[in-house]
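=== Given protein ===
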Amino acid sequence: MKSYRIGIIKGDGIGPEIIDEAIKVLDAVSVTQGFNVKYEEFLLGGAAIDETGVPAPEETIVGVKKCDAVLFGAIGGEKWDGLERHLRPESGLLKLRQEMGTFANLRPAIVYDELVNASSLKPDVIEGVDIMVVRELTGGIYFGQPREYTEEKAYNTMVYTRDEIKRIAKVAFEIAMKRKGRICSIDKANVLEVSQLWREVVEEVATEYPEVELSHMYVDNAAMQLIRNPKQFDVMLTGNIFGDILSDAASMLSGSIGLLPSASTGSDVGLFEPIHGSAPDIAGQGIANPIATIASASMMLRYALDENEAANKIDDAIKRALSEGYRTGDLADYDAKEVCSTIEMGSIIADYASRDDA
């Protein structure tokens, strides 16, 4: 029997609650699909600060690199907002991503048929939307040097090398080959030199993938087009800061940020996490939506472990739960037949994922 070592980072706020439900679903599907999952828990973010004084302890950095994949909940909260920037929970996550070498962030934005009315956009605009945002994750303005803050002036530097652009572009083209064969590369090449290089390198990589249709779009227009006509997009390829903003905008097409997963890949060990935050205002109340985290576990099975059948089981189980009217509180107003707690939703999906007819 195959066995996988999975690093678990529960984090802060609702992180422990949603991770527990994802583990429940993984355990259920692993039994039916004939593999074993062993978990090892690590600290990151506020929980790590409270226990060790730093947001990304060295034992976490070393430990996750020995795993086959890492499933991550969420970090942060007002409790730690007053700390210096390098000591805040978010700095721990940035360090973890960089140390792991996970340069490619995959964020699907999918509109479930059962929740087409949950979006703030008209059903005919978002019905059938299925977008994959491929965001470069370890370069760009978030990591560029020099950077400085003073009372009179502050600055950051946006930097991309040819190699950094080439490797993320290849990830996007490979994904497009498995989808509808279209990439829209997002930049600001009309005003930014770094975007001029971005566009040039992406076009060079495109010559290696003649089956894929490549287009370009300025980021401001892309933000507008995501709202006006999201179905025009298949794969959206973009840099770190643009991808951060656009993927959050795309997430709301689904009607709830609690539905959508993400994967950070590119190295031997991938990091899989929901795109939402730690939501400390609802932590401990049992009302958080675990679906994004459960779907992140599915992405982990598919992209890190090559357990595609198990991933399909989880995806189908999520759709079945929604089609039968099970909703957490954030979606209670949309054709809910039964409003579930966090634990109840996890149990329903785990049950469906373990069935032969799921």
